[in-house]
Amino acid sequence: MVDILKICTKVLERLKSMDCELNGGNSAEQLIFPLNNQTKGKVDRISEQELRFLFVEQFKIEYPELFYSVETPTEKKYKFGDTYEDIVKNKNTHKVSASTDMCVFKRNEVDFKYERILNIEFKHENGALKNTAKDILKLTREKQDGVFIHLLKNTARDTVCNDGKTGVFDKYLKAFLAFNDEWIDENKSIQLVLISLNENTIIYRKINKNDNFNSIFSFNSANGNITEVNKNEWKIENVEIK
Measured between alpha carbons, how far is residue 72 from residues 97, 99, 170 in Å? Predict the structure, then answer.
């Protein structure tokens, strides 16, 4: 119902056209990357916030008949803790609602009630395993289809997959294997979208409960970047920036 790739392609085009507070510019895009004052000097801050804002704006353009909420309380209960190990240990301890970055709704035109149809989580850069795991657990346990959109500034050979097991695919694999028993509805799917800002590239695919996750997140070698993913039904979109 929602063409996630179409929206993400437009979002990548808009991200590439954005100006930065540090260097200025004359872009028509109103959103800019702000200055991040770090100890090593002034640099541009690129985060998931820009991804979220542009995604919501583009969603509203593409789907005026649908509705959305942000930071939406989950229907299921969770207890996370401070580490990945805590999340795994507590996965069956249902305590309080968490929140989903964005939830998409359709409205019944008979009784005008809203129905959740899609949960979306956004991530930026190769962060801590616990942060990826929390989002994947939520997308797995909630009954609606899910989308996980991950923005990387660039993908070196060890960013996506590496023999140290700290690449983003390594973290996806670990989380999906750990929480597969929480995935009750075998008809439900989760769409994964990985965006490389510097390489103008998007890779994406849908996964289901009974898929072979070891195969999905594998590479021909111990290390790999976004262009070296074994196909395994992954699709690659090279976005032409105008």
Answer: 9, 5, 28
